Amino acid sequence: MARLPRLSIPGLPHLVVQRALTTQPAFAEQADYLDMLSIIGQQARQHEIAVHAYTLLPGEMQLLLTPRAQASLSRFMQSVSRMYVPAFNRRHQRRGTLWEGRYRAAVLEPEAYLLACMTYIDLAAQHAGLAAPAEAYSWSSTQHYLGVRHDPILTPHAGYWALGNTPFARQARYQALIQQGLTSSQCAAIDNCANKSWALGDDDFLAEIQQHTQRRVRAARPGRPRGSSAVLSESGAGSPKV
């Protein structure tokens, strides 16, 4: 079965997941994490990508990004991989690929899912048993949003700014979201869309995107005609007005 084109819509946030081979961690020592963060910051500026949140786990990288142009996301991810993998291989005296396959990208309805996906990303290390509390983990955006340190690669999304009128108010509200966590249904919805590269939003959001492309945004519902919903691919038409 042919692979569906990746999802890419300028101006909307995307949850991006890149996983390492099961036999090889993507980040094995501090130098790996530092190198990847430097590369992300450099390539985000070059390819007009806003980085809203991230976590680097030993075997997985999760990013919350907004591309400015149609091809920004794919070019950014290609450049990150081309710069990081050879450097990683040299440090660890290995050859070959590092990733298990293509990166996955799920476009999000920001009003409904931006903060949920930020929380999902910033809790990933805690859920993996790597840190407790979440802000104890150095290789994620959690510390930035809780006021522990400033992270220059991050561009807070408007959804985060709306949490309060002052830095303290925003940090306190976000701390409450981190402490509250996500429901099992929220995690399942995000997991499903991230793993399968579906869009994440309500029916109106998906229907608006559907009008601009022939690529499905979600799995076909039982009993519905195939192709009843779709999303822009990286080579698709212009951005929808969402």
Explain what the structure shows.
The chain is globular. It contains 9 helices and 4 strands, in the order βαββαβααααααα. Strand 2 and strand 3 (60-67) form a beta hairpin. Helix 1 (30-46) runs antiparallel to helix 2 (72-92). The chain has a 4-stranded antiparallel β-sheet with strand order 2-3-1-4. The chain is an alpha+beta fold and 242 residues long.
Can you tag this structure with a few keywords?
242 residues, alpha+beta, four-stranded antiparallel β-sheet, 9 helices, 4 strands, 11% strand, globular, disordered C terminus
In short:
The chain is of the alpha+beta class and 242 residues long. Helix content is 40%, strand content 11%.
Mean pLDDT across residues: 88
Number of helices: 9
Global shape: globular
β content, as a range? 5-15%
Helix content range of the residues, please?
Answer: 40-55%
Main beta sheet strand tally, sense and closure: 4 strands, antiparallel
Rg, alpha carbons: 18 Å
Low-confidence stretches: 225-242
- Identify the strand order in the major beta sheet: 2-3-1-4
Number of E-state strands: 4
N- to C-terminal separation?
31 Å
SS class:
alpha+beta
Order of helices and strands, N to C? EHEEHEHHHHHHH
Describe the secondary structure blueprint for this structure.
Blueprint: E1 14-19, H1 30-46, E2 49-57, E3 60-67, H2 72-92, E4 104-107, H3 110-122, H4 124-127, H5 142-145, H6 158-161, H7 167-180, H8 184-196, H9 203-210
Antiparallel strand pairs: 1-3, 1-4, 2-3
Helix pairs in contact: 1-2
